[in-house]
Amino acid sequence: MDFYRELGTAPLDRAEAVLRRWWCEAMLDTDPGLKGVEQEIREGRAGVGTAAEDVFPNWADHVAKARARRE
């Protein structure tokens, strides 16, 4: 439902960005390698400026939202 709400309320010039972000999240949710990246971040082994931090500066929020959707 969040997807539809966000896409439906986005200004027309932001609709493509909203769609791309949700598509990226869906692809990451299906990536089996994501668990290893998440574990490295949790253990503090991911270096500063990792790809995950560049893509998701609020990584903890992303992980929490993904887990909430699965439950």
Explain what the structure shows.
By secondary structure, this protein is mostly helical. The chain folds into two domains: 1-30, no CATH class; 32-71, no CATH class. It is 69% helix and 0% strand. The protein has helices spanning 2-9, 15-29, 34-42, 51-55, 59-70. Helix 1 packs antiparallel against helix 2 (15-29). The longest helix is centred in the N-terminal third of the chain and has 15 residues, at 15-29. It is elongated and about 40 Å long. The mean pLDDT is 75.
Features of the shown structure:
71 residues; mainly alpha; 69% helix
Brief summary of the model shown:
The chain has 71 residues and is mainly α. The protein has five helices and no strands.
Q: Major β-sheet, in short?
A: none
Taking all Cα atoms into account, the compactness measure Rg is: 14 Å
> What is the number of strand segments?
0
Into which percentage range does the β-strand content fall?
Answer: under 5%
Structural class from helices and strands? mainly alpha
C-alpha geometry: elongated
Uncertain stretches? none
Per DSSP, the total helix count is 5
Helix content: 55-70%
Question: In total, how many domains does the architecture comprise?
Answer: 2
* CA-CA gap between termini: 15 Å
What is the average per-residue confidence, as pLDDT, rounded to a whole number? 75
Secondary-structure element order, N to C = HHHHH
